[in-house]
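re: that chain from earlier
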Amino acid sequence: MSRCVIIGGAEIKDYDVVRRYFRADDWFCYCDSGLLHMEPLGAAPALIIGDFDSHPNPDLPVETIVLPREKDDTDTVYAVREAVRRGADAFLLVGVTGQRLDHTIGNLSILLWLDTLGKSAMIVDDYAEMEIISRQTASIPDSFAWFSLLSICETARGITVLNAKFPLHDAEIGCEYQYGISNEVTPGRTATVTVAEGRLLLIKTRN
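^ sequence. v structure.
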């Protein structure tokens, strides 16, 4: 399977921003009220999943999985699990952050799970890109206004940040003290972040 794009029902204000992340061979899965974004995104679904408590089942000629309303997994989590089962190795999630803080935090945990599986994953919204840094070096171009490093599951150690206003060398960030917020890339450079132990959530905020 090519990269799986999961589309949830959170608000998207700037569809042009989101569409810039799409690839020609992306495989699109819409989750329940994420179907509200189908026409403005202009991306045809390969799969529709939902319990349809927030959007009616559109009854399109597309594979549709109807879920019970009382379940452990949210529609988005179920969709990601289904895509993993079908062999997806890379994920882009949109429409999954915003009005519902509980859903936002739950969806951020999806990034942790996919990282554990060794799969590439990113959340994109109107304002930022979000991804997990663990084994790989992350690069942040100076086109981003700010970037933040957050510990959301464990203490991360051996953190190195280069080409930034606030560089770090062999640093540590734990869940109790989030001091890695609102760093800036050195103008004309590309910042890099590496983590020797643990994982960090990288949020790159656009201008």
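Helices lie at 15-19, 38-41, 75-85, 101-116.
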